[in-house]
Amino acid sequence: MTALQTRKPTGLPSWPILLLAGREKAGKSWAAVSASASPLVGRTLYIGIGEDDPDEYSIIPGADFEIVVHDGTYPGILAAVKAAVAEPAGEKPTLIIVDSMTRLWNLIGDNMQAIANRRAKGRKNAAGDFTISMDLWNVAADQWSTVMDALRAHQGPAILTARLDPVAVVENGQPTTQKEWKIQGHKSLPFDATAIIEMRERGQFLITGVKSARVQLDKPKLFPEFTVDRLWTDLGVADGTADRTHATVQTDRTGAEPGAPREEAPAPAPVASIDWAKEIMPVRDLDALKAVHQRAVQEKELGLTVGADHKQSTLDLIAAWKLPTPKDALTIAALIQAVKGKVEAGELPTAAEPTLTDAWPVADIPKDGES
After folding, report:
1. Angle between the 311-321 and 332-344 helix axes, to the nearest 10 degrees?
2. Domain map of the chain by residue range?
3. Which residues lie closer than 8 Å to 363 by C-beta, 6 or more apart?
4. Residue-by-residue DSSP string for 224-284
5. Residues 280-327: tens digit of each pLDDT
6. Which of 59, 76, 78, 144 is the most exposed place for a label (fewest CB within 10 A)?
7. Tell me, what's the pLDDT at 122?
8. Opening angle at CA 245, ends 136 and 155, nearest 5
9. Which of 47-51, 254-258, 281-285, 294-298 has the highest mean pLDDT?
10. Radius of gyration of the chain from its Cα atoms, rounded to whole angstroms
């Protein structure tokens, strides 16, 4: 049996990975490049993916950045990210900007589509292409994760941009006049970011998610006069940072074949990585719920327990749908089944947009020597 290994938490924040998601011409690149003027960072490396190089933005007061040159291919982009992360930092940490992650995911998808067309099997879809098989989507997800893992290895700030589009809410298989905002990229992108700033209109900044003990956020809130430097300061990085660490998941490719006897007891079931409560929240009919169920089956997460990271979302869903509070661990299947009963009974919650305010409380973190 492997000996237990532990460490004490540092109490310090690590440099965040910020996601600036906005509509076209909302100022995502401008806000990202403006961060290079912050006194908290030293060198800034800009990696453009499918976007025009922001040469003109060098006139932004205080802006000081370098444009990383690459060939536009996935291997070239990955090499550029890894090279930027490997660059030695000076007295201040290096800021890495990737603009945009939407274009990166589109590129990966286009590459998989080219392979699917070359295989020329199955039926063509409405666009005249052959369906991308699940094994290719798995390759695409691995390629995306490889880039994100490289960025997480960076011991300094990172800013990612992505497109934010209003999409129609579908009810009974038909689009409605209702709209919801969706970040365009791999589905894990919002989960990988430390904080998410949405730019639905130019000059409007909405903070919709943050992982921090210092910034307390219970709902999306407006961020007046937003700058990346101000957010960094609120997150506490100016008072000191710790290295970014995370529990890396490693695939074991040398284990026993399925059905072979095991020397040790099997590990507990993994915790679901997708916030299924948020996926279920807008459901209003059985077709939509069936789509969520099918996704969970494809992700092989139907029988997993709701993760601690998504506890609040699950409690919100239980309150909105007036579901009984579970006494034991709640599985995704049980959550879907409970909502199904409500849908069949016509007991639908009232959909409501979150109330937006212009401020959020910042926790008072004791300094050394204080209690």
Report:
1. 20
2. 17-239, 276-344
3. 213, 214, 215, 216
4. TT--HHHHHHHTTGGG-------------SSSPPTTS--SSPPPPPPPP-S-HHHHHTT--
5. 888 888 888 888 888 888 777 787 887 777 777 888 888 888 888 777
6. 59
7. 58
8. 95
9. 47-51
10. 22
Question: Please, what CATH class does the domain formed by 17-239 belong to?
Answer: alpha beta
- 78's enclosing H/E stretch is helix 74-86
pLDDT tens figures, 201-233: 888 999 999 999 898 888 899 998 899 999 999
Q: What is the pLDDT of residues 61-104, one digit of tens each?
A: 999 999 999 999 999 999 999 999 999 988 999 999 999 899 99
CA atoms within a 13 Å half-sphere pointing along the CA-CB vector of 113: 11
The residue whose two tokens read 């399925």 is 258
CA 54 to chain CA mean position, Å: 25
- Residues 272, 292: Cα–Cα separation, whole Å: 14
Distance, CA of 218 to CA of 175 (rounded, Å): 30
The pTM of the full predicted model, rounded to 2 decimals, is: 0.67
As given in the structure block, the two tokens for residue 334 are 């049980």
CA 86 to chain centre: 23
Distance CA 181, CA 204 (A): 14
* Encoded amino acid at 223, one letter: F
